[in-house]
User: What shape does this take?
Amino acid sequence: MIILGINAYHADASAAIFVDGKLVAAIEEERFRRVKHWAGFPELAIQFCVQEAGISFEDIDFFAIGRDTKAKFFKKILYVAKNPFGNLAAIKDRLTNHKKVASIEKQLADLSGLKEEEFDGKVINVEHHRSHLASAFFASPFKKAACLSIDGSGDFSTTMTAIGDDNEIEVLQSVDFPHSLGIFYTAFTQLLGFPHYGDEYKVMGMAPYGEPKYLEKLKDVIHLTDDGLFKLNLKYFRKGTSGVITYGDDHIPVVAPMFSNYMVQKFGAPRLKDEPLQQFHKDMASSVQRMTELTIFHILNHLHKKTGLDAVCIAGGVAQNSVANGKITSNTPFKQVYIPSAGHDAGISFGAALYVQHQLQQMERQEPIYTAYTGSYYNNDEIIEMLTAKGISFTQLEDEALYEEVTNCLINGGVVGWMNGRAEFGPRALGGRSIIADPRRNDAKELLNAKIKRRESFRPFAPSILKEYVNEYFEIDEPVPFMEKVFPIKKEKRSLIPAVTHVDGTGRLQSVDKEVSPKYYQLIETFRKKTGVPILLNTSFNENEPIVNQPEEALNCFLRTQMDMLVMENIVVKRN
Assistant: This one.
């Protein structure tokens, strides 16, 4: 059986394909379009998946669409009826978007060259949050687990809890729009001067520089309820019928201001673009992060009471809050946590396919998914052909010589672009498309920002650590394959790795498994043998753009920055 999952006309458009229960490929459309969070019909991602599977469109049994415009239809009607004075342009935009989703068969017909009727009965719509739940549970190692999906909004839900049992997911509770932890976080992200879609991680990075001084005030903004869920005090937010996220002809998601005048009265005016960050902003970020954590723990503690299970699977945009994720086993009774590599909306394609595969078709569960390497791959010959055509000098090295060359560069203060194997699915670079540096350098963060990233000084860089050494360097020892959790670094180790130790003594780690990432593992192991430190500083291979996908993009990033070395498979390009 072949199932193609699609996230279309929604932020982080993507596609994923499963053949006889096995994941073959998954990729975001932005990697091809070179536009962050691209939100149209992901035809290039779909074509990539079909090609990787070595099939034709006729061979596909089901097309799983991670969107169901009919979900909670009457609740949507009731909401609009209660809030009749919304923005007509915003309502028109939503209706247009719904029509696009409803025309998937035509889009597939145009893309494949087949007749539209050939897709009859093959297109299955899966509710947004059920797709999120499936992306976490059905990819996890657990036969039975509690499940949580939590984000801004999708198909009129913002939060959904469930029990996963083998190849079934039973929904327990849900929270309806506009009551949303994602909207809460985004509104304060905007108030703090970060207006763009996806800017929430900046608030998370800034939070440790402040104190949660405004936590009590925030308890009036979001109320934790006795049923284990929450409600927003809607006085603090603009009406949802005034528009939340819109998608123009360029398919770039634009987030409308979500805070109301009442929020401005209570918490102050929004920070202007060029206004310097004050301690107030840092304290507000700390307070928002803390309130978010308390809300997540509240939901999970009640979910544990309901289920009595020790394992939990989490997805949704809020599941990208790695700081909160790292505190779950310390603040709830759950002992095991699984979060997929694409917990955000790109994972909708992956989850919709899994939902059809297991929930609807009752196929047996596959092996748990611990790899994110499901994207594009280019071999040495293809890389050499590209470099030769552009007149770029290079050397080709065998693996062992390559590890020696790269680690020597790092130890001497170099910054290296590392492109190896398949591209990662999700927002994190995990050694497939990474920029790496020596974590022992006090100046590594400044070097990276000066040479390449040019980003806010408060944003941390991450440690990739050999799996076997996590308990030696971190206070919590759990598998973190997708850099999805932040843990405290042991006090005696912090001075050894200052470049990846955040101001509060934590690090957003990736535990590198030899079986999953053999070449990246061996590179770090070579560095360990020379320095005694089993860690590399790892950040995404990009510069204010989507993570690089193909060799030419990696080369262009290398040439327009001050990176010292570019490694693509076994090919090395050095700066003259």
